[in-house]
Amino acid sequence: MDEAIIYDPELHVHLIPSIVSVHAACITQPTHTVATFLPPLNQSVMQTWWEDRTKEIVTGSRHIIMQTAANPSTSKEEVVGVVMLDKPQSQTVPHTAWVEKLLVLPEWRRKGITKRMMLKLEEVARKEGRTLLVSLGYVWVERRN
């Protein structure tokens, strides 16, 4: 498997549907990630949401890191994981960035994909002087019947 890659809006626009598929699978399959949308999912809305994130790449406020792999059934290269680096434009915290949407297809978990993507994300952040990476980890909510 190749190393994770940085999404380039000019080269990778055709991969947005594949990214949407990863996002949808992470929401609808165990462990049922809470990630911006709730079932029933609207693929068109999700597609637009990701297209808007790619526009933020052009403005310099975001990076998207992807991991691709060959689909075992079709041998076609697909996105199997994605993570974003949000870079707030602030004079008070120019060294800070947010890690967002760390998503890996359930069938591709525990294969080193998260590690590959995070290493690439850290490399990108470091090159831009973003030395403090913040992530909203897990939030546990008590269920009430």
Protein described:
It is built from four helices and five strands. The relative contact order is 0.19. The protein has a five-stranded mixed beta sheet, with helices on both faces. The protein has helices at residues 9-12, 16-28, 43-59, 113-127; strands spanning 5-6, 62-70, 77-86, 96-104, 132-135. It is of the alpha+beta class and 145 residues long. Strand 4 (96-104), helix 4 (113-127) and strand 5 form a beta-alpha-beta unit. The protein has one domain (5-135): Gcn5-related N-acetyltransferase (GNAT) (Aminopeptidase, 3-Layer(aba) Sandwich), CATH 3.40.630.30.
**CATH architectural category:** 3-Layer(aba) Sandwich
The number of distinct helices, counting runs of at least 4 residues, comes to 4
The arrangement of helices and strands along the chain is EHHHEEEHE
Structural class: alpha+beta
- Strands, total number: 5
Tell me the name of the CATH homologous superfamily. Gcn5-related N-acetyltransferase (GNAT)
